[in-house]
Amino acid sequence: MKKGKVIISCALTGSMHTPTMSPFLPVAPEKIAEEGIAAHRAGAAILHLHARDPENGRPTPSAEVFMQFLPQLHAETDAVINISTGGGPGMTLEERLRAAVQVSPELCSLNMGCMNINLSELASRHDFKYDWEKPFLEATEDLVAKNTFRDIRHIIETLGPGGTRFEMECYEIGHLHNIAFFADKGLLKPPFLIQSVLGVTGGMSADADSVYFMRQTADRLFGGDYIWSLFGAGRHQMGVCTMGALMGSSVRVGLEDSLFISRGQLANSNADQVLKIRRILDELGLEVATAEEARQMLGLKGRANINL
Hints:
One of its GO terms (molecular function) is metal ion binding. InterPro entries: Aldolase_TIM (IPR013785), BKACE (IPR008567). This is 3-keto-5-aminohexanoate cleavage protein. The chain has 308 residues and is an alpha/beta fold. It has helices spanning 29-42, 63-66, 70-76, 93-103, 133-138, 149-159, 173-184, 208-222, 237-246, 270-283, 291-298, and strands at residues 8-11, 46-49, 51-52, 59-60, 80-83, 107-111, 115-116, 144-145, 165-170, 192-198, 226-232, 250-253, 260-262, 265-266. Helix 4 runs parallel beside helix 6. The protein is globular and about 50 Å long. The model has no long low-confidence stretch (mean pLDDT 96).
């Protein structure tokens, strides 16, 4: 694994938390742009992006909505734009790729396999503002987040020729082997950005053994040809990031992954979480990468070569 500065990614809104869960979850395009600018100024080199319906906060694949905040983020920050190809529940593969195909960003997320994801227990914890929220959460008990080998190949072959590289999200050890499968076919090329995702119900647990096993397996499969990043879902966010950073990883925070800044206290913004992990990294004596340094580490095509 390559050594160097720590890249901070920030996932601003995601597609699984619903607006009632936190008044600070950015929904409107102008709010997503505002949050992204602040997170970048706080130290996030990469902005991981989903879109929301401005009327009700429901996840949307609409390229038109993405284009209501992407140009501002591109114009007012130096951040690496990273568009999700995971989308949200119920979206087709074609829908999930619409914004990424239009923009051809430097990075896109790429889930490296199918996943059961269950947030149904959250459906009983709130009085929801919008009528879609409760059934949306209840339905996750029967949710499979689909990314088959055919889907993964299609995403790579659709976006790769334009120079887009991938944040490869690995919820369990088999997903690392899936990266190796596509690398052996010549479809994925190093340096790989491997994002270990821990603590999601249905995936690997968020504990020290999982962090170590992820790193050990990636080292065995990829040697020095990868940049490792990781995050912990929910209450595990800062602890997992700290464990990973001590072992040489980069980190991801943001309201997509956790709505909280500490036990029982909602984060007021994405920037709050970026500032907190940056303080931790500073105390550990670790240097944070700028956006340009992250581009060099990841072999990205550069911000001048995207369609914004």
